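My current task is to audit a protein record that another person submitted. Alongside the sequence sits a line of tokens, each denoting a local backbone shape. Please read both lines and tell me whether the tokens look consistent with the sequence. Do not assume that whoever made the record got everything right. Thanks in advance; the entry in question is below.
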Amino acid sequence: MPALAAVDDPPAAVKGQLAGLRAALDAEPSLPARDGGHLLIGTFNIRAFGGLTAKWDSAPGDSPKRNLTDVCCLAEIVRRFDVCAIQETRGELTGMLTLLRRWGRRGG
């Protein structure tokens, strides 16, 4: 699955987008910091999460629409929690497997 390995090295524009997302999440007062003193549990309904277009930017005719940038952003949000339930997944697991791979990476 080429999409899995692709998330290991995002292009510079995506790295910038992820840095901005990290900063916004850090500044969000309703999201407590993972300080080791609390167990943060979240649920995330990722609408129709299944297939993945193995490109950083989806084109108008691509199916599925979700792309590698989307999965990197989703991983950035999910990694803020100690435990996170992902809801509305589909039988096609490319998106979930790619998310799990990215979730285990730091930075970039």
Summary: The mean pLDDT is 86. Residues 2-103 form one domain.
